[in-house]
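Q: My labmate handed me this sequence with no annotations at all. I'd like to see what the chain might look like in three dimensions before we decide whether it's worth expressing. Could you predict it?
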Amino acid sequence: MLSSRWIWLLAACLFPTVSAADEQQKSPDSAQLFRTRIAPLLQQSCLKCHSSDKTEGGLNLSTHAGLLKGGESGPAVDLANPQASLLLQAVRYEGPQMPPTGRLAASQVQDIETWVQSGLPWPADLQQLQSAPLRRAPEVNEETKKHWSFQPIRKPPVPAAASWGRNEIDAFIAAGLQARGLTANPPADPRHLVRRAVYNLTGLPPTPEQIKHYIASPTPENWATLVEQLL
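A: Here is what I predict for the chain of 231 residues:
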């Protein structure tokens, strides 16, 4: 009769051992999470500064081994205590703030937490991630929203109108000239005014008919009509 020691030894030989690749692949759901959400997120938001090409702080997030190794601050992930992982602290903005250009969306942070807590699955066929192409959809986050194009439209206070001004734009131009110690030129005569308008808006010289028509009656109404026609 076999002793218990030999039974355990036989069982160990019959059952396959878990390889590093098996550990990386984990469950199909975990692998799918990495392929569809984690890998694109790392490529878009992390690998520009933390890849094999550029390794800021000694941290390379383009490989599974690089992630476990970590950088100058230590391992990026603590598999024994996932919640204490530096990676999670960084994306939560609880310590080092990553990415520095602005917080990730709450759903993205949740995906990273799920990935880390599930054991950091990394499909074996994705040995090394590559940075996302430079041409991509603009990233919109709290930092990029500070750009003037995202700010609400507000009407600025209009400077005091100049004597020659006809509208608010003229008031701003007059204020700019005054701030630089300059004065506006006198109004152009009708012929030159037509030439400037037509050249500026079409790139071509005015026709004799355009010049003749405006010179005959150089009123503000006719000027507005001419500009409207050119536009």
